[in-house]
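Thread title: Can someone regenerate the structure for this chain?

I was given the following input by a collaborator and told the matching structure tokens would be attached. They weren't. Posting the sequence so someone can regenerate them.
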Amino acid sequence: MDNAKFQWDSCHSVKSWAGHSLVISVTSKYSQGGMDVGTSDFDSGKWSGETTPQSSPSLGPATPAKPARPAAGQNQQGEQELATKMLQIQSKRFYLDVKQNRRGRFIKVAEIGADGRRSQIFLALSTAADFRDHLSSFSDFYASLGPPNPESMPEDGKLKSEMMIKENRRYYLDLKENSRGRFLRCAQVSQTITRGGPRSQIAIPAQGMIEFRDALTDLLDEFGTDDGGFKGELPEGRHMRVENKNFYFDIGQNNRGIYMRISEVLQVKSNFRTAITVPEKSWARFRDIFADYCDKMKDGSTSGATSGDKASSSGTDIGPGPK
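Best answer:
Regenerated them for you:
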């Protein structure tokens, strides 16, 4: 085989309706380094390879398939982007994206450093409003400081600190100073993880705090400070007793949405408790499954109505009882 480039053509015939055939010519390039199949652009749906469909006149021209893409402004997780702002502060870029999902609206703040490293935090709109107010306070404090003095620098570098709490998240705001200058570090920590666990944080150069605050204010003026989601009063918990078991149905809400916690307490020697958590979006499906089992058990007990009546009078146990 010659090392120089050459072309290989092949034709394939595929039978179709009423004896007609679709002829597809495939032209591929081979080179010394192997097969060149072209390049693809997944964002635009374009393909630069040289696969050329042709057809017989009876079938008409073939139409290339286009890849399916999410609707504009909405990703596959159901999040919709409502607005975005970009800030260039010194060597860093900050993106403030207002997003919305079934739990409400929030702002994603992404920091991209000069080396391309990316970090981000998430703020509910109400939390973003608190953050904006803290930025004003930190900016005033920063303006009152004199020039940096390495001899009077605190050991931990902290000049001023505040904390925000939103549901199960804590935000630690620290105006710090090091050899590179002064900056505001905002760290987001989930209270559901163990102490010392991972945290997300961004660092805003102190000179850009006012610009950052103004951009945040523009977004809040447009979209408000209402997080959205469920705002009504949650239903009260329910309780039922079946023989030596107690079942508790409690409704709660966190940053992920509304849920039902079903607890089973076995009153034998000591109160042994187990529980499951069911997201609100699954309640209807759970109800349908339970209703289906109830109907099937009712149909199956038609021939034994007498024994069924006796069982119902003493209560129905869910799952095997203790031996």
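The two ends are 80 Å apart (CA to CA).
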